[in-house]
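TA notes. Do not distribute before section.
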Amino acid sequence: MYREKGLIVRVKIITAPHKGYRERVVTDFAAGAAGDVVWLGESEIPGLVEAGMLLDLTPYVEKWEDWGKFYEVGKKLGSYKGKVYAIPFETAPLVIYYRKDIFKQAGLPVPWQPATWDDVVRAALTIKEKVPDVIPFRGFYDVCLPIYMAGGKTYDPTDGKWIDKSDAILSAFKVYYDVFYSYGITPKEAELEKWDNRKLFQEGKLAILIDGVWCYIEKWGPGMTYEIENREDVVGYSYIPGLGTPGAPNYISVTGTYNWVINAKTKYPELAWELVKELSKPEIIAQWGYETSHIVTRSDAVLGEYAKEPFLKWATTVLEHSIPKPIASGYKKYVNTFKRVIIDYLVAEGKSPEECLSIFVNEAIKELGSDAVKEV
């Protein structure tokens, strides 16, 4: 296109390892060394926008007919304070995985789709009784997932405050307490010693696992780290159910994105935008999704090899039940505080849900500030 205009455009690709990538990107932006177009996780968007480092893409997407083909959850993850700063390229919701062979051994139905959280607990208790040498359950990958399962929120965008006390948060602590103490379907050591859930699942030593969609191919697929040879026959998957309490969703998942963003200091904003559009074509997104077991972010990208893979076709429907991670400053502090209370007080010391809620309120105020939190 540009050669026809007498212009030659050269794109230099700068790569970095996955480990430590987010820190590298933030450092590059701070040093003025970031590229014109950058691959960025959703959690870095607020800080970089506040620092004036990301180009506002709202005027561009308003004129881009393809924008209407992107799923809403991805659009929300690329937006901040009412403006679009990122074009979602991939997303990765959470799902339930279960070992079909263990379920059959325990006399449980296959295929399996729990209707409520109680169904998950009952299945895990059955496995605990009938297949005692297997860990029944491990979760939740996103530590705040049980809050969402109860129909709650962690952040209120209307006033920009984090929620430190609510019925849903108390319900979440109860879920964790039940898992480790009331029902004992997860050994405390698994959390405290950080057992490798994916390896245990591969080896048939773990029956039910809540994890990301990427595990199916990226972890357990052919030639991968934890390859399961007869994966299609052994690995089942289902939606994550709500708690079954008033206000709880029928099914729920939470997801984040990796996105293309444009450096606000680029000398070539129009060229950068053309490159982003090129990189965001449906066939490119589809091929990447197929190779990485991540979910496509636009409805017309379910094509090619991606469309032929039964798991990916099913996993794309999980987006119908997915909510975006909060895009707001303080997200990491909030999550880390919640996780610390669960591990240090609930799991390690056996504190009750009510005690943990009280501790969390105090810790959230300490970490985020009293003006940044509220009770619902």
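Switch to the second chain here.
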Amino acid sequence: MTSAKNKTQITKCIVSFSHSKYDSRMAADNLSIAKAKNEIEAEKNGISHLILRSRDDEIDRLKFLFLIHGIPVMCYALGNLLCSSLKEIVVVGSDEVRQVMDRFLQTVGTCGKNIQFVKEDDRQLNLVHTLSLGREKLAFAVDELVLFQPGDLPFLYDLEKVLGFQRNKNHDIILWLNSRQKMFPEFNKKPDSEFVKRNYHYRILNDNERDLHDLKEPNLYPINFSRIESDIIDYLHSSRKDGKIIDAGVKMSLKNPIRIFKTLPYLVDHFFRFSSQVQQIRPGDKYQFGMSRKNFHKSISNLLNIPVTTTLHDDPSFVSDVDALEDWEDFESLTHFADNQGGLEKIHPFGKELIKFRETDMPFLKEEIPMYQNFPTYLNRIYKTLGMDYEPFESNGNYISPNANAPEVAQAYHWYQKKCAEKTTL
């Protein structure tokens, strides 16, 4: 394995507004309902009725097009990138994504950035092909990292700590791991402080044998494409959810059996020590995969044949994606709360521009994109189909979710208000 000597600053990004499709609406809904049912029965912290696409939909149920406070999710994500120091952005998505993007950029501008669009390939909606489409639009050097992220992170606007991370220089993949203890340090004493509800399937021992963290998979990846094998990201990303990362390790081991011998010292230490260490700290703890951070770095770097590192961040916006109806509600409730406290600009640095886009362009997009013609009715129908016991909108379109006044909403507002104030004063 050769060492990395990359440029520290990342200036290029691929953002994906594309997602896989199930063969039928019935298959997609059955999976969504079954997952939520299992989580409810297991009394999980986070319940997820997944937002899934299917090939027989009359209206493409693409989560990036869903409206938060009347504004597409993808526009929040684009606003985050426009606020950053990035110079080149490649957007991958559908024809409707292109329609929204063009209107958005015409109204708010590009902030001096070079923004290109590439249409998703409906025949190959897997991550490897999506990344390949994005890469074809970029020219990058052998010592350059590119940021890849999905476009369902509407409030991840503090990107500079990722783009200028000092360890970018010496690593070809950086995993920004979502640590429950870092993001919500008081969740045991003050449950309402954990305003993003997620299930944490992984465990990691950080810098010492008592520093145990509950982890959720990363949502963005700085990558050196010139030094990484094309299928590695697909293994890591597609196997990352619900504790299935070990599947990725098995696949890579079978493909590169020689490398597994380099990882053996770290795996042996892991198998003989990790479980007992966890039980000493937290007796009875159940998890699907775990490792000491040191062993993980050494084993995964040898397995992938490139230097890999992780960082445990403290920013809830990194874990707060829009995969499910419950996630959408979190943001819809947050933005309605903010509307009564001074407006979206209090919690999002691109808030004024987002509102301007809503007022200027959404009336036209409602005529052009079927999902927007009557979004409240469309969403109510999805809630009913997935067996939810309430609807989020009244017949006249007012947001009335029973979760709108949950204490976590106020917690989220105050956290983002502080974060936004720090961002806008820089």
